[in-house]
Amino acid sequence: MDFKKLISNILIFFERLWVIAKPQLEALGVFCYWASRFGLYKAVKFFKVNRVWPWYTKLGWRILNLLAVFFFLLFIVDINLFWLFGKSPKISTLYNPDLKITSELYSSDGKLLARYFDENRQPMKYEELPPEFVKALIATEDERFYFHFGIDLKASASVFYYMAKGEKRGGSTLTQQLVKNLFKTRSDYSMGLLGHIPGLRALLYKTKEWIAALKLEAYYSKAEILTLYCNTVDLGNRAFGLKTAAKTYFNETPEMLKAEEYAVLIGMLKAPSYYSPVNFPDRARDRRNTVLGQMLKAHLLDQNSFDSLCSLPLKIRLTGLQAGADESSYVRDAISTYLKPWLKENGYDLYSDGLKVYCTIDSKLQEYAEQAVITHMKRQQKRFYQHWQGSNPWSDKNGIEIPGYIEGIAHETRYYKKLQNKYKDFPDSVEYFQNLPHKMTVFTWNGDEDTTLSFLDSIRYYQHFLHAGFVVMEPDNGFVKAWVGGINHKHFQFDHVAQSKRQPGSTFKTFVYAAAIDNGYGPCDTKIDQAVTINYKENGEDKSWSPKNADWNFSGREVTLKHGFARSINSIAVQLTKEIGWRKVIEYAHKMGIQTELQDVPSVCLGSSDVSLLELVNAYCTAVNGGVKIDPVLVTRIEDMNGKVIYENPGTKVQALPAETAFYMQQLLLAGLTEPGGTTQALWEYRLFDHNTDYGGKTGTSSNHSDGWFVGVTPKLVGGAWSGGESRSIHFKTSELGEGCKTALPIFGLFMEKVMADNNFKDVRARFPKPAFKPAKNYTCHTILPKTDTIAGDSIVGEGE
Question: Whole domain around residue 348: which residue ranges?
Answer without folding.
Answer: 330-462
